[in-house]
């Protein structure tokens, strides 16, 4: 494919990943019971019902987060996105890590994205059954989203996001390092548009 | 048979405990190719085995319970619910008669909502329905009178479903048959329409939607300026739409054409573009191509006319016209003169003003004197030396088609230097432009009359020179 085709592919991949990320974040919020189940409403994505939080602040926070990640993805500057559940002591209790990478191959046989949709459905299913694998969370946990990116891109995004009134800040060390983590691989996908791997990390101290 | 029975236990063990999957009885029956009842029994024995022999209490089991409820207002209803194990007794007590109760799913994680269950067997159930006949082979819900549709019937159904309004009705009826139906409407024990059968239906629906969108736009943007014949042809062809790809390609070609004409005149080109996007037959393409340049040609004279009318309007408007003329005249002059009256206007103005003037002389002659008048007035208003551009009736001699020498009087634009400040100009600037235009017109008519006197040509030229004001 020509360069422009590759760039197009990258844009498409960024869009698809961001759509999936938004739903996945809501799914994590629901399954880990970070918000009461009552605020979640059933909506449809990838042809299956998903639970989305309807609280406006949460919704706007997730949307803005995903938008900024989309900007970074278009510049191919994102290594991984993590949704971190933080205990009241500001220590990460568990992490859901989405590792993203450029696609390695260009098979081109997934013209209507059926296979990609299928694999994303699998991701959602895996996310919802993780609670059997993870230990229960302590009470009053909070959550945050961290993005691992290049420094130049981070500076660029800071300037852009100030305009949108949604600033990103450098994450604290204490919120990034996990004590005694245990890794649980969940799922991986390799499509024409992006490569993604999802795994969970759990701290033994909870 | 013994080996098969044992194997399923191992399989289930692997799926549930190692892979952490939620296994529904439907998924199990499809995977092991057994009847659903057998699958249910398998699940049950697996649970028993795990709990009793292996002390595995981490299994979460859901049950499917159906029965007649207690009469409410004299009405008994059949309720079917998927309930977690804890609630099974509570739910059973609400029913007067329990008609069926069996395991629905087994898994390690707690099932708080139906999303997970739906997701768990979605992929295995929604595989290609035309090749995967297992799902009704192993199902116990059967309707003997339902027959498999032939391919011809399926094709006619698909075409029928391309119209979006009627497709809803078709889907509605298919839902009723869904419980007992066969391949064309995928059966599900819950009675819902499967996504696979809807996928081919959705595509023509979508295409119908897109094509319908174009058709709607074509109808909406129908403008009175367009040829009524063309529009009628378009609408008759709308109904005959078949292939969408060809129309898309033509849309691209037509869009290219319409872009070129859009600059000239937007309104007629838009309905042209949209109407043409709807076409499907190749003959029509040629017709439309022929018609496309003709509106383009029509639009060129429109363009000229439009510009002329604009210039006519501008002649009434003092300041703009004045500025343009002044700048045009200024830049033409090679001599260095004081330019203290107007702020400099960018050069494109100068380029534009000669351009409209050149097509103008080709057309009507009526407006030309009007043009000359403001030019003269502006130049005289200032009363300084500058180059003038004028239109003059000049006799031209040339060879005719038949080989005769012909002399004709032709209006030609000519630029000359202003000779000196003339006494009339200082008085005139205070008068209105319209008043000045009328004397100009009068002078224009004597101008036309004077050239026929060929003998006094030179003198006529000189007098004209003095007369112009």
UniProtKB/TrEMBL annotation, chain A:
One of its GO terms (cellular component) is nucleus. Transmembrane segments: none annotated. InterPro entries: HORMA_dom, HORMA_dom_sf, Mad2-like. Keywords: DNA damage, Nucleus. GO terms for biological process: DNA damage response. It is found in: Nucleus. Coiled coil: none annotated. Residues 11-200 form the HORMA domain. This is Mitotic spindle assembly checkpoint protein MAD2B. It comes from Mytilus coruscus (Sea mussel).
UniProtKB/TrEMBL annotation, chain B:
It comes from the Eukaryota. GO terms for molecular function: DNA-directed DNA polymerase activity. The keyword Nucleus applies. Its main location: nucleus. Residues 147-469 are annotated as: Disordered. GO terms for cellular component: delta DNA polymerase complex. This is DNA polymerase delta subunit 3.
């Amino acid at each position: 494919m020509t360069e422009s085709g590759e760039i197009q592919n990258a844009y498409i991949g960024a869009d698809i990943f961001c759509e999936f990320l938004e739903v996945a974040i809501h799914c994590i919020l629901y399954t880990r019971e970070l918000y009461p189940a009552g605020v979640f409403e059933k909506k449809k994505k990838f042809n299956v019902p998903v639970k989305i939080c309807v609280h406006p602040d949460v919704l706007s926070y997730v949307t803005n987060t995903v938008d900024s990640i989309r900007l970074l993805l278009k510049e191919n500057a994102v290594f991984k996105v993590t949704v971190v559940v933080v205990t009241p002591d500001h220590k990460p209790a568990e992490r859901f890590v989405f590792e993203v990478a450029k696609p390695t191959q260009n098979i081109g046989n997934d013209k209507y994205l059926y296979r990609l949709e299928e694999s994303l459905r699998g991701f959602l299913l895996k996310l919802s059954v993780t609670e059997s694998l993870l230990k229960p969370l302590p009470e009053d946990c909070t959550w945050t989203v961290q993005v691992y990116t290049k420094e130049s891109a981070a500076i660029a995004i800071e300037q852009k996001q100030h305009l949108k009134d949604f600033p990103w800040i450098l994450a604290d060390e204490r919120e990034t390092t996990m004590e005694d983590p245990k890794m649980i691989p969940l799922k991986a996908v390799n499509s024409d548009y992006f490569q993604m791997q999802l795994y969970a990390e759990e701290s033994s101290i909870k | 048979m013994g080996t098969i029975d044992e194997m399923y236990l191992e399989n289930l063990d692997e799926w549930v405990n190692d892979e952490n999957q939620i296994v529904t009885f439907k998924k199990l029956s499809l995977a092991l190719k057994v009847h659903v009842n057998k699958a249910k029994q398998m699940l049950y024995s697996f649970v028993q085995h795990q709990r009793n022999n292996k002390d595995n209490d981490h299994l979460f089991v859901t049950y499917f319970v159906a029965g007649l409820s207690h009469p409410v207002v004299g009405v008994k209803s059949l309720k079917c619910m998927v309930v977690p194990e804890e609630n099974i007794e509570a739910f059973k007590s609400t029913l007067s008669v329990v008609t069926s109760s069996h395991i629905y799913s087994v898994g390690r994680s707690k099932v708080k909502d139906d999303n997970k269950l739906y997701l768990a067997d979605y992929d295995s159930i929604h595989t290609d329905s035309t090749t995967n006949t297992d799902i009704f082979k192993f199902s116990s819900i059967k309707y003997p009178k339902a027959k498999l549709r032939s391919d011809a019937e399926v094709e006619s159904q698909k075409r029928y479903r391309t119209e979006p309004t009627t497709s809803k009705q078709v889907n509605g009826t298919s839902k009723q048959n869904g419980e007992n139906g066969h391949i064309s409407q995928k059966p599900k024990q819950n009675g819902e329409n499967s996504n696979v059968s809807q996928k081919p239906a959705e595509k023509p629906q979508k295409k119908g939607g897109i094509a319908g969108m174009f058709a709607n736009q074509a109808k909406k943007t129908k403008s009175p300026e367009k040829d009524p014949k063309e529009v009628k042809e378009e609408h008759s062809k709308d109904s005959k739409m078949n292939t969408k790809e060809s129309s898309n390609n033509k849309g691209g070609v037509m869009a290219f054409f319409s872009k070129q004409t859009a600059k000239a005149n937007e309104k007629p080109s838009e309905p042209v573009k949209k109407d043409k996007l709807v076409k499907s037959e190749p003959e029509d393409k040629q017709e439309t191509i022929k018609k496309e340049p003709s509106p383009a040609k029509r639009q060129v004279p429109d363009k000229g006319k439009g510009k002329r009318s604009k210039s006519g309007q501008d002649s009434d408007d003092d300041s703009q016209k004045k500025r343009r003329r002044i700048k045009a005249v200024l830049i033409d002059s090679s001599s260095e003169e004081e330019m203290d009256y107007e702020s400099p206007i960018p050069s494109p103005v100068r380029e534009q003003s000669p351009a409209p003037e050149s097509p103008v002389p080709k057309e009507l002659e009526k407006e030309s004197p009007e043009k000359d008048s403001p030019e003269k007035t502006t130049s005289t208003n200032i009363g300084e030396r500058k180059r003038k551009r004028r239109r003059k009736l000049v006799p031209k001699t040339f060879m005719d088609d038949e080989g005769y020498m012909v002399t004709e009087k032709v209006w030609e634009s000519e630029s000359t230097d202003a000779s000196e400040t003339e006494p009339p100009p200082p008085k005139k600037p205070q008068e209105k432009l319209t008043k000045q235009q009328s004397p100009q017109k009068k002078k224009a008519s004597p101008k036309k009359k004077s050239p026929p006197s060929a003998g006094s040509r030179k003198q006529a030229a000189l007098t004209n020179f003095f007369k112009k004001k």
